[in-house]
Amino acid sequence: MSGGVDSAVAAARIAEAGHDVTGVHLALSANPQSYRTGARGCCTIEDSRDARRAADVIGIPFYIWDMAERFHRDVVEDFVGEYAAGRTPNPCLRCNEKIKFEAVLDRALALGFDAVATGHHARLEDGVLRRSVDAAKDQSYVLGVLTREQLAHAIFPLGGSTKAEVRAEAARRGLAVADKPDSHDICFIADGDTRGFLAERLGAAEGPIVDALSGEVVGSHQGAYGFTVGQRKGLRLDRPAADGRPRYVLSIEPVSNTVRVGPRSALEVTAIECVRPVWNGPVAEPREPLACTVQLRAHGEVYSCRAHVSGDTLRVELDRPATGVAAGQAAVLYDGDTVLGSATIASAGVPTAA
Questions:
Q1: 42, 43, 187, 274: which is the annotated catalytic residue?
Q2: Same domain flag for 77 and 48
Q3: How far is CA 200 from CA 82, 195, 196, 207, 338, in A?
Q4: pLDDT tens column, 252-282
Q5: Active site residue 43
Q6: Phi and psi at residue 99, to the nearest 5°
Q7: Of 162, 179, 196, which closes a domain?
Q8: 119 in a labelled binding site
Q9: Which of 200, 209, 308, 313 has its CA 20 to 30 A from that of 2?
């Protein structure tokens, strides 16, 4: 129970359905005072109090589990390390994979529970993960990394409801979090300043910003980790492009500490190389090229594609170009609204200097 409206209603629904339910809030910071106050993120001190009050209203036992050390290692350190390596991680996806459905699930099963239920907006039917009926709130993408074994011990009670219906139900049940705003920020970055957070841990490292088409140095930076592929704002370039059009981050090279920029058209890719595929859908790993769709970022566009599997790698060929495809993000494959599997994006054919 995160302290938000979704997990509160999820707990209420499964308790009402007759399950033996225990509410658990995760303490994810070794120093809770370092977490923000208010409703900008999740996992704040206020959230733990809201979760406890919701459990009291529902009438279920409530505990706080200390996962701070595991969270720091598997989510925070992973986040910093991925940026240092020139990739763009999704910490919420990693938290689902390593904390909620690994660390928490392992402890729950050891204690005799059958499953972990969360307030994610996704459907789980006969062990198969599907999109929520509320397309705007669908979270199947950030759950697409889970294995079949993890999904076999998961419950997502909200997948058949819209967010408006969930809030209305919370109000009817007398849950004080009915109107609580959704969280959007990274929970462990107290002020929302991702670049500052990374700079504090990785230090300043001046390097060049290079025009990928001409090879000219057009600016400098204090750390390549402060940029993401597709970024347009905040580049602080010394000179404009010859055609006067905006330039975008095309690639990040951590070894040379170089950021390459260029026109938006240079961001377009039609082939994406991925690693560590996970097949959690209704069919096993495909032996032939698979015609399906792919989502390349949370709440991002969906592209028709063909997926080619070769051992521990996956090549995704898009029917139309995508832009801003960043290494480190997940490529989640779908058949309609059904998740077939996922893999981690390794590269997307971003051009280098001419």
A1: 187
A2: yes
A3: 15, 9, 6, 17, 41
A4: 999 999 999 999 999 999 999 999 999 999 9
A5: no
A6: -105, -65
A7: 179
A8: yes
A9: 200
Q: Which domain holds residue 316?
A: 268-347
Judgement on whether residues 134 and 160 belong to the same structural domain of the protein: yes
38: alpha, beta or left? (left if phi > 0; alpha if psi -120 to 50): left
pLDDT per residue over 138-185, tens digit each? 999 999 999 999 999 999 999 999 999 999 999 999 999 999 988 767
Q: Does 295 share its domain with 332? A: yes
How much is the average pLDDT of 115-141?
A: 96
202 is in an annotated binding site: no
Would you say the C-alpha torsion 163, 167, 168, 173 has a positive or negative sign? positive
Are residues 285 and 145 both part of a single domain?
Answer: no
Residue position matching structure tokens 């609580």: 180
Partnered with residue 338 across adjacent β-strands are 130, 335
Q: What is the pLDDT of residues 321-330, one digit of tens each?
A: 999 899 999 9
pLDDT surpasses 70 at 351: no
Q: Which candidate in 42, 95, 274, 305 is catalytic? A: 95
Confidence of residue 41 (pLDDT cuts 50, 70, 90): very low
Q: Are residues 281 and 296 in the same domain?
A: yes
Residues 257 and 288 in one domain: no
Return all residues near 322 (Cβ < 8 A) that are at least 6 apart. Answer: 268, 269, 270, 272, 296, 301, 303, 348
**The domain boundary residue, chosen from 264, 285, 314:** 264
pTM for the complete prediction?
0.91
